[in-house]
Amino acid sequence: MKYQVIYISKTGNTEKIAKKIFEVLPGMEKDIMRFDPGMEIGDADVVWVGFCVNRGTCSMDLLDYLSELHEKKIVLFGTCGMGSDASYYKRIMDEIVAWIPDDSECLGTFMCQGKMPMSIREKYESMLGNGNDGQLQALIRNFDEALLRPDKDDLKHTAEFVNRMLEKI
Ligand SMILES: Cc1cc2nc3c(=O)[nH]c(=O)nc-3n(C[C@H](O)[C@H](O)[C@H](O)COP(=O)(O)O)c2cc1C
């Protein structure tokens, strides 16, 4: 079984998850690389595709690439700023899974919280005092909770997820 891990990571969160996935994958026939829009489709049987969430989804280039992954088993993983919101994670993943061709199979998806750039907290703070403070305080709390993510537990959950996916293959 050949595995390929491909990922987009702007600030390193998704890269941490990608590296853990790569570490847990068995055997020597495995490869890990950053996504590049011009990259060729490899001969891996199972492709692990990772992304950072940007405005509710991943990049269009990655969606295009996914739509060209024929006759593969595909696993999606990602990180996003929003924490513990299963329905939000599901909505994002469902939209991305829809790009996988019918002759491929999505084995599963994994999403985890990742820290965000300080500019996002500063933006929330600058908006305080305009009648929306309750929601903004919740966003600031979420920002602060994300500061150390992905953490040790997230990497443990990643490893458990990989093993669950391997059982499906
Ligand atoms: C411009 C921008 C847009 C973002 N949009 C979202 C979003 O829509 N939803 C979300 O939950 N997190 C969002 N985030 C947070 C990132 O998804 C999160 O920090 C992610 O872990 C970054 O992954 P990376 O370190 O691999 O780049 C955004 C961050 C930036 C900088």
Explain the overall architecture.
With 169 residues, the protein is of the alpha/beta class. It has two domains: 3-114 and 149-168, Rossmann fold, CATH 3.40.50.360; 116-148, no CATH class. It is 43% helix and 20% strand. It is built from six helices and five strands; from the N terminus they run E-H-E-E-H-E-H-E-H-H-H. The protein has helices spanning 13-24, 60-67, 86-97, 118-127, 133-145, 152-168; strands spanning 3-7, 30-34, 46-52, 73-80, 105-113. Strands 2-1-3-4-5 form a five-stranded parallel β-sheet, with helices on both faces. Helix 2 (60-67) links the parallel strand 3 (46-52) and strand 4 (73-80). Helix 4 (118-127) packs antiparallel against helix 5. The radius of gyration is 17 Å and the shape is elongated. The structure holds flavin mononucleotide. Residues 9-15, 52-56, 79-82, 114-117 line the site of flavin mononucleotide. The site of flavin mononucleotide (FMN) has 20 residues, from helix 1 and strand 4.
Quick structural summary:
This protein is an alpha/beta fold.
Q: Describe the biggest sheet?
A: 5 strands, parallel
Strand order of the largest sheet: 2-1-3-4-5
Number of helices: 6
Listing every helix as H and every strand as E from the N terminus to the C terminus, the arrangement reads EHEEHEHEHHH
**Structure summary, number of beta strands:** 5
Provide the CATH superfamily of the largest domain.
Answer: Flavodoxin domain
User: For the CA atoms, what is the radius of gyration?
Assistant: 17 Å
Class based on secondary structure composition and strand pairing: alpha/beta
Mean pLDDT rating: 97
Bin the strand percentage.
Answer: 15-25%
Task: Find the CATH topology of the largest domain.
Answer: Rossmann fold
Low-pLDDT runs of 5+ residues are none
- Which ligands does the model contain, each kind named once? flavin mononucleotide
CATH architecture heading of the largest domain: 3-Layer(aba) Sandwich
